[in-house]
Amino acid sequence: MTEEAEQARDESRHDDEAYQLPPRTVTAILYAVDTGDRDRLEELMAPLHAADIADLLEQMNTHDRAELIRLHDRDFDGEILSELDETLREEVIAMLHPAVLAEAVRDLESDDVVDLVEDLEEPQQEAILDALEDADRVAVERALAYPENSAGRLMQREVVMAPEDWTVGQAIDFLRAADDLPEQFYHVVLVDPRMHPVGNVTLGRLMSHRREVPLSELTEDVFEVIPVTRDEEDVAYAFNQYHLISAPVVDDDGRLVGVITIDDAMAVLDDEHEEDILRMAGVSDESSLSDTIFAAARGRATWLSVNLLTAILAAFVINLFSEEIEAMVALAVLMPIVASMGGNAGTQTMTVTVRALATRDLTAQNALRVMRREISVGAVNGVLFGVLIALVAGFWFGVPMLAAVICVAMMLTQVTAALGGFAIPMLLDRAGIDPALASGPFVTSVTDVVGFFTFLGLAGWVLL
Amino acid sequence: MTEEAEQARDESRHDDEAYQLPPRTVTAILYAVDTGDRDRLEELMAPLHAADIADLLEQMNTHDRAELIRLHDRDFDGEILSELDETLREEVIAMLHPAVLAEAVRDLESDDVVDLVEDLEEPQQEAILDALEDADRVAVERALAYPENSAGRLMQREVVMAPEDWTVGQAIDFLRAADDLPEQFYHVVLVDPRMHPVGNVTLGRLMSHRREVPLSELTEDVFEVIPVTRDEEDVAYAFNQYHLISAPVVDDDGRLVGVITIDDAMAVLDDEHEEDILRMAGVSDESSLSDTIFAAARGRATWLSVNLLTAILAAFVINLFSEEIEAMVALAVLMPIVASMGGNAGTQTMTVTVRALATRDLTAQNALRVMRREISVGAVNGVLFGVLIALVAGFWFGVPMLAAVICVAMMLTQVTAALGGFAIPMLLDRAGIDPALASGPFVTSVTDVVGFFTFLGLAGWVLL
Predict the structure, then answer these.
(1) Partners of residue B305 in chain A, C-beta under 8 Å
(2) Which of A185, A245, A385 sits opposite B308 (nearest CB)?
(3) Nearest one of A217, A270, A226 to A244, comparing CA atoms
(4) Same domain, yes or no, for A382 and A312?
(5) Which residues share a beta bridge with B248?
(6) How many domains does chain B have?
(7) Are residues A316 and A446 in the same domain?
(8) Around A396, how many Cα atoms within 13 Å sit in the side-chain half-sphere?
(9) Residues in chain B closer than 8 A to A282 (CB atoms)
(10) Is this complex scored with an ipTM above 0.90?
(11) Is residue A286 part of a domain?
């Protein structure tokens, strides 16, 4: 077995470490930084991909990061800035010598520069724009004129196009004569005389057909044209739904102004997922592992404050029944079970609903049916866990009526949790708010209040 | 302004409805199904993409779905099956006439057939394999021999390759003479005489260079070779991290056996997101909106059972302090606040940790620093919300020592929540278990127990 094969086999066994920088490399780099050994550092960093260097910078502490950048300054690659987490970009850009920064930025494609500068403060943005050549600067400034998170910010302006009446031969001759083709392109976009895109021809088809075949006979079946103001989240959805590789972008008059490729759409999909998962957990979606302690604490405090208010509301509900609790402490012992099970079921339904909205599986057509199903699921599990907890409570405290009360309270809370977990994200979505903001705090506060109220209320009514 | 432009503008304003089937179309299709109007149905369905038809089937009720399939049977496209949610595939396949099924499947690429059959029961799998031509059948069976969720299942076996010593001219002549090129390909893979892949040349570069240029001068800088047994999640990570468009797949001996393209990697990334988000909420990751009520209830009951056990554990803790509660009911009123805030903070830390593990931002190098940071964040928010709740409790019940007790309990619980939210997913990851399974139930039960114990324990010790 060859060496590569052994390596391949070894890697496949250790999937956890696949595509992680080897710890030995990281240790060696940190040692080179510590000892200020610039040559050794260059030697270690040269084979690394810009994305991996960016990850490494994110994982270092502030002091080591500054040292590494000081030593690595000469060869700093603009792509590292592109790959770097937004929260660290300003810090790293401020560390770079202006001449190095200018050099680094000039090598980037215009869509990467847009991504890089759009969140920077004015002075840093200016410094980078000034470093660009005039044509690139104009391209970047035009892109920045489009709304944030729109297709216009995401697209590249360099498009390979051909008139719709050309043949394979004409297109091939044109491509072979062109001297400024984009780094990456996968289609020739056919346009009509008004510059409206009418079809995509893959390079593969172009290469495998005879010169006299008209391009219009080779266009792909699936062809999506993206308005320049469309939200990037919708763009990512379209790429994933229709298996697009690249798609033309048009302005308000339907004229071709750029092209979006699937690698950019994939990065958006990943970002949107990060945003959803953090929002649902009540964490600021701009937080990152390299935040300072106070920045991170602030990013969590917002939802903790909401949760504090709703928890106090739940405490008020409990306080209404303080006499009942005084008369029977078992109520205080059992009430968190009802609330906790409700919170869990509510979170489950909420997550399914938020996800189904994101994937467009939940629409006006099936909303009612899905709601009925969720409520039925709540009822089924309500009966199941109601009976289970009744048995536990009955044996524990030996009061049959207490068992009956907790059984009914569990059923009611499970059904309410399903209703709340479905309705809260749906209403937020209808109101134009991201349903992922219907995170834990909202739903669990509803289920807490309902759980405490039904259990203690029923107990007060029946038992005392 | 042209009609298309108006449409484009209109769409960009209504981002919520972008890429949703227009409700009017859905209504018209349902009406055609109801009235058994086969011609009208064909007319309405013809312009739809297979992925949209699959979504439509998922959103219909069982009866309408069966009717639509009965009417649409003649023209049933195999891609609809590919796009359909796994939970519905068996149902729909069972509805199709065997001849229609055979026809539908024969049009699919072999990697799509693999994706289609891998989760089917034996008899349905056999029926589909039998419908394939011999060569395709062998290809699919070979792919099925690779582990589930591996690169071998994901790849297509049709690869466009060239010897590493060829020139641009030789490659172009070869491509133009070939009559069985894959539908979609973006690179020519260069191989050495032992069939080991050594580089990728994009079609764009091939077309824009002179015939005598050696291919080895045109290879891309970033080149990742994927072992056939590598987990598809790692494959998706590599595509996203290194902006790959296609990557060669090699067997244990390092020989080229297939190629994976970015559209497949993007679909995996999306699936993994879905799995993570559902697991963290304690929902079975195989659930879908078209599950029956009982299937859906079962998919949630597992984690509800775990939660029931941990909630009972928390109730035992409360029961230890029943005398204290009897003496001071305010304790029962306030204790859920401490637990709820802890659950929230724990979920926040857990989500950040699970996500950082998935993106490889959390490694052995920075784990200690991240843990210290999370605990510090817990301490900062613990002090903040401890003081806040102390003020509320102090004014509410007028017992200064009670305020002091809840303040300290809040601080301790916030710090423990941070520790638990970090450590539980980390330990699961080290043990080779998906950290997303450290979902709500786990972390919130830790914080519930700690919250109740510190608050009631301190109260019993100090107040009574």
Answers:
(1) 385
(2) A385
(3) A226
(4) yes
(5) B259
(6) 3
(7) yes
(8) 19
(9) 344, 347-348
(10) no
(11) no
